[in-house]
Automatic annotation (TrEMBL):
Name the record gives this protein: Putative O-methyltransferase
Pfam families, alphabetized: Methyltransf_3
Keyword Repeat in record: no
Entry keywords, A to Z: Methyltransferase, S-adenosyl-L-methionine, Transferase
GO molecular function, one term: O-methyltransferase activity
Lineage: Archaea, Nitrososphaerota, Nitrososphaeria, Nitrosopumilales, Nitrosopumilaceae
One GO-annotated biological process of the protein: methylation
Domain of life: Archaea
PANTHER family (UniProt xref): CAFFEOYL-COA O-METHYLTRANSFERASE 3-RELATED, O-METHYLTRANSFERASE-RELATED
Length: 210
């Protein structure tokens, strides 16, 4: 683990524990709402094996998951594009990326996820070399199926789309059920739920035409 990244991750984990104990005192827009540490370790190992050159993340927040991704691909001439609509969170994430020494490999796109995704799709559709190898979805749960469909069109063959909050919190259950039913009906995708953290869905794009 890169020492600078490790220090920032440790600081954010302390913030996460504070939020757990004081969640009623902190407004939803001010909360980190990140993946768990064990999920971070899982994705770090997965990406070290998968060796992606280009990563897309939907839902930056304070940059916790982004830093786990960055640590896995640092020094490999790879890039992360991450989407966030909350200016306060973008400001904090930028500071965290600078402290971790990874600002140059991360591009933050501000705006609503759907709009940014559609713009991205439009900009890269003519060049498959710009497609993503790994995409992580951790934003509006009710829009997961929409995000997935847009992302699938920008994903390289043998690429992975992952999604958080598949098992917890329970309040998202109806949205997640729709998401799982949706992706399980796509012939070009193989998918499995991994019970790590709040539950991760790992979807693999088979090497065949959509």
């Amino acid at each position: 683990m890169d020492k600078k990244i490790a220090r920032v991750l440790h600081s954010l984990e302390k913030r996460s524990k504070y939020e757990e104990k004081n969640h009623k005192k902190i407004s939803h827009d001010q909360r980190m709402l990140a993946i768990t540490r064990d999920a971070g370790i899982f994705y770090n190992i997965l990406l070290k094996t998968h060796k992606p050159k280009k990563i897309l993340e939907i839902g930056t927040s304070f940059g916790y998951s982004t830093l786990w991704f960055a640590n896995a691909i640092i020094g490999k001439n790879s890039k992360i594009v991450t989407i966030e609509q909350n200016p306060h969170k973008i400001n904090i994430a930028q500071k965290n990326f600078r402290k971790a020494g990874v600002s140059k490999m991360i591009e933050i796109k501000e705006g609503t996820a759907k709009n940014v995704l559609l713009e991205l799709k439009k900009s890269i559709k003519s060049n498959s070399k710009n497609y993503f190898d790994f995409i992580f979805i951790d934003a509006d749960k009710e829009l997961y199926p929409i995000y997935f469909d847009i992302c699938l069109s920008m994903l390289k063959k043998d690429g992975i789309i992952a999604a958080d909050n598949i098992l917890y919190p329970i309040r998202f259950k109806k949205y997640i059920k729709k998401y799982l039913n949706h992706i399980h009906g796509i012939p070009s995708v193989e998918s499995i739920t991994v019970p790590i953290g709040n539950g991760q869905e790992i979807s693999f794009k088979k090497n065949s035409k959509n």
